[in-house]
Amino acid sequence: MKHIITTSGLRDELAGREIRLTGLVPTMGALHEGHLSLVKRSAGENSLTIVSIFINPTQFNDAGDLEKYPRKIESDIAMLSPLLKHDDIVFTPEADDIYRDEKVPDINLGHLDSVMEGEHRPGHFRGVIRIVNLLFSICKPDRAYFGRKDFQQVAVIKTLVKQAGLNTEIISCPIVREDNGLAMSSRNERLSPELRNKAGIIYKTLRKYSNLTEYQDIDKIKKTVAGEINESGNFRVEYFEIVDDDELKPLRSVTETDGRKKYTGCIAVYAGDVRLIDNTEFYFPFTKG
Q1: What crossing angle do the helices spanning 124-139 and 151-164 adopt, rounded to 10°?
Q2: Which residues have C-beta within 8 Å of that of residue 263, sequence separation ≥ 6?
Q3: Bridge partners for 3 per DSSP
Q4: β strands within the chain, DSSP E
């Protein structure tokens, strides 16, 4: 694989190639098996895979969170080496390089920017749009791979692609989990061993209430899920919403459900001072339609 650190260097490298299909895996580093599953899929489906590693400052609404984000570039590259082909690329730009001469896309996110992550992390998705748009402009990928753990982010990026008229297919890949069910995340490294082990309660609780016909009241489901997690010790639910997969509009009543749609329960939980997100499908056998 090739390691390229500047946007001009990457553009020059790509300009000299005849490429059939390009896959892009955007990451912020501190790679784990979830990231590697995206890389493996891209490598198997495309003639060229580009993995970007860039801790994007514009998507952090908390300066302390940005400062604490793990940085492991050398070990990240070592993990990628056996998965990438000789001509594949690892791209590790600096902020003042990649953001030079940026043209910020005019994208209307609508309610996506005001619910769940949009509500609790103001400006976060604007920063996501900026960096993804730049990476798409530089790399010109036919396909881009994202983990379903960032469920709302995938919807935001699909909105970018649609409104900007881009030709990149967005591939949403399954969540990879630790043995206890905790969704793999670079932030997990900041958890104490004890808290990391207990954090499996998040997914366990989501799954427990994802398909129970007796819980037909949305508020009751939400309060029950949040209550069980909060009472398990050193966990605090920031939000829990059940949304439809098409528009990500939070359900307020079971009467709003449609048997032709899919629904996902999305949650953000503070484990100590570490913020974790997760999601799983929710099923309503009593839906209309």
Answers
A1: 60
A2: 242, 243, 244, 245, 251, 257, 281, 282, 283, 284
A3: 90
A4: 2-4, 22-27, 48-53, 89-91, 143-147, 169-173, 235-244, 263-271, 274-282
Q: 39 near 84, Cβ under 8 Å?
A: yes
CA 149 to chain centre: 5
- Residue 214 pLDDT level (bands cut at 50, 70, 90): low
Helix/strand/coil percentages in the chain, nearest 5: 40, 20, 40
First to last CA, the chain: 51
Query: What mean pLDDT is predicted for residues 53-77?
Result: 94
Distance separating alpha carbons of residues 89 and 53, to the nearest angstrom: 11
- CA angle 46–280–287, rounded 5-degree value: 115
Q: How far apart are alpha carbons 243 and 248 in whole angstroms?
A: 5
Question: Measuring CA to CA, how many Å separate 167 from each of 22, 90, 140, 162, 243?
Answer: 12, 22, 9, 9, 27
Neighbours of 117 (CB within 10 A): 22
274-282 sheet: strands from edge to edge = 235-244, 263-271, 274-282
CB atoms within 10 A of CB 207: 14
β-bridge partners, 51: 25, 90
**Residues assigned a catalytic role:** 35
Residue-wise pLDDT for 217-264, tens only, equals 899 999 999 999 999 989 999 999 999 999 999 999 888 888 889 999
**244 with 265: CB under 8 angstroms?**
no
Q: What is the pTM of this model?
A: 0.95
